[in-house]
Fold this sequence. Notes:
It is a single chain. The protein is mostly helical and 450 residues long. It has helices at 11-27, 30-59, 63-74, 76-84, 87-90, 93-116, 122-150, 156-183, 189-215, 218-224, 252-266, 269-280, 288-303, 311-336, 342-374, 380-390, 395-409, 411-432. The longest helix has 33 residues, at 342-374. The two termini are 19 Å apart.
Amino acid sequence: MSVPAPQRRFPCQRLRDAARLWRLARRDPRLGWLLLDNLITTFGASFTLIALPFLVMRLTGHALDLGLTAALEALPSLAFLFFFRGFLDRADPAKVLWICRALYVVLNAVLAVATWFGAMTIELIYLLALIGGLVWAVAYPAGRACFGLYIRKGLLPAGNAVFAVASSLATMALPMLAGGLILASDGERGLAVAFAIDAVCVALSLPLIAAVRRRGPVRKRETASEAGTHAAAAIDTGPDPAPLAAGATIPRSYYAYLLASTVLVFGPVQILLPVLLVQRHDSRYLSIYIAQFAGIFIAAGLSAPGVPPALAAVLRKIVLCWSVAALAYGLLGWSAMSGAAAAAQLPAALLAFGVLAGASNYYGIQSLSWLQRSADAHSMGREMTWFSAATMGAMPLATLLTGALIDRLHWAQTAQALAAAILAVALLALLHLPGLRQKKAPGTRVPGAV
């Protein structure tokens, strides 16, 4: 018989929960190693993120070449889903991630050397982007599977929240540093240095991945020691809900929600924001990045306490994030209309993009943490491959769709159309959710879970 968890947790209880998490994290350094790995690789990737578009535009001057490069990097994840989706279930995700990182070092080194000596061509960029996309298609789900297998379940929501805040802070600040380096340099030498910095950062992450792998996956240890050795080190999380049957997979409807979130709800921001900055041509609008970080920071704090074990409860949270995003798009559409007051346009954009970033971050932490806790250890790689395809792999579709809408409907009407479409999909989801309310996923409640 299960005992209902308290609905409200007082500050002293939250402090005790945080202290337990901290003590567990100190005894098991894998979370710290993976966090440091994330920070190092994010630092390096920020330089390539800025340098590669500069290089493409300097070589050809055509935005289409830049879009094709991005598509070549993202589309291989879909091929990996259809042809190699069971590969990570048979391999050690940490070993696969280490190999992929080593290949990234080689690719970035080739970029740096070819750019330094003036031997880079657009055809070589296409080839390296395709190879990099293939490596990323394996590395991304391997990294997510590694986090789910090598980190204790009680640390997953808090760990994903810390990852999100650290990545968003790095994404906001580091491109300014990388851009300053590139703009201050002469010719392609600054671009070559940027690629070299990325290669060095990825190389520094290799010992961290190796250290995590030497400790072994914690999920297997928990399965083998259910009788009592794990109880002394684990957090007191309360009774477990009934798990899924052995060998059960995550319902594919879950990935349909993720696909809709990518294509229709949060992916369009990747095009709407840069186009708005170009149209406004006002440096004050760069403060949108600060508003986005504020939204991400708040959402991470709300997500850190835990994630519910039931699939229906997580999907309801996703639909709630959709509704919030629809309101934000509606605000953007209204503020961009010609009849809106000019003084209200910047505050509305700050609020709307901050809310969108917060909703996206909350959705991302909840959905990923639930999947990492709920997926069976033997099928973790397969599920993370599906996750990769439904999120990052579907991003080119979101950007192409949004770009086409902007060309046809203009910016304000596109934001309004997205708001209406999101609300329509949310209504369809409300018809689907009642049938899932009785289904539970394997896992335990963590401190503060609702």
